[in-house]
Amino acid sequence: MRELLLQKGISLNERDYFKDRLTAQEISSLAKDVGMTEIFAWRSPSFKKLELIPADVTDEQMASLILEEPRLLKRPIVRIGEQLIIGGSLKAIEEAV
User: What is the DSSP letter of 8?
Assistant: First the structure.
């Protein structure tokens, strides 16, 4: 994916979410664009360890969990112009560029 973006002449702003964690405001902004459930990594082993029932987890809880454990943020996150692509779908990225 990185190579595709570079080939298309799109500059990258990469961020290590484990070293430079997202703020509550940044999480809220991402969720506003696509919905909290779309940025939350439901299949993450970190989530499974919590033994929570997905249907019972509120948006506020998801945001709090992402703040505590960055592995619960679905990655990669790609913003091309105003379009936000979560999870690195190559098809979605190709359509956006």
Answer: T
pLDDT tens, N- to C-terminus, the chain (97 residues)? 777 777 777 777 888 999 999 999 999 999 999 999 999 999 999 999 999 999 999 999 999 999 999 999 998 888 877 888 888 777 777 776 7
Q: How far is CA 23 from CA 18, 26, 88, in A?
A: 12, 5, 21
**Of residues 19, 12, 16, 67, the one with CA closest to residue 39:** 67
